Amino acid sequence: MDKVKYTNIEKENKKLISEFEKYLNSKNLAPKTVQKHVDVAYFYIDVFLNDHYVVSAKEGINYTYIADYFDYFFIRKCMWSTPETLRSEVASIKKFYAFMYEKGLVSDEDFDEFRYMIKESINDWCEDCQIYNDGGEYIPI
């Protein structure tokens, strides 16, 4: 692993999270709501993307990363995962990528594909989460 690449991605991601927080505050959301969205975006970007793939937040809009996070990592590694918390996490990630889209950091095509993927997959992810939490057989795709 190239330490310089990792450091540059990490710096870029931290800057984006800070800008995301300012963006949410400019929307006059409650401080608790802002903090929740920022915490979720930070966890997805720093804990998941940085530690597991070493990719930037911009690359994180890709189906591979989103599906791996919501249909495997979040369900299996986050003890607080329930279908309800999964939906809440998805909402926060959607807000983050809407912010990136508004800034021109993701393309129309990538953002449209991302929204379509969420719409088509969220119920399956929630079902998989419930099956896993109930101790049933869970086979990730």
Descriptive notes:
The mean pLDDT is 92. This protein is 77% helix and 0% strand. The protein has one domain. It is built from 5 helices and no strands. By secondary structure, it is mainly α.
What is the overall number of helices?
5
Which stretches are poorly predicted, pLDDT < 50 over at least 5 residues? none
**Could you describe the largest sheet, including whether it forms a barrel?**
none
| Rg calculated over all Cα atoms | 15 Å
SSE string, helices as H and strands as E: HHHHH
Helix content: over 70%
**Number of structural units classed as domains:** 1
Structural class: mainly alpha
* β-sheet strand percentage: under 5%
Q: Which descriptor suits the 3D outline? A: globular
State mean pLDDT (0 to 100 scale). Answer: 92
Q: Based on DSSP secondary structure assignment, what is the total number of beta strands?
A: 0
Instruction: Give the end-to-end Cα distance, rounded to a whole number of Å.
Output: 27 Å
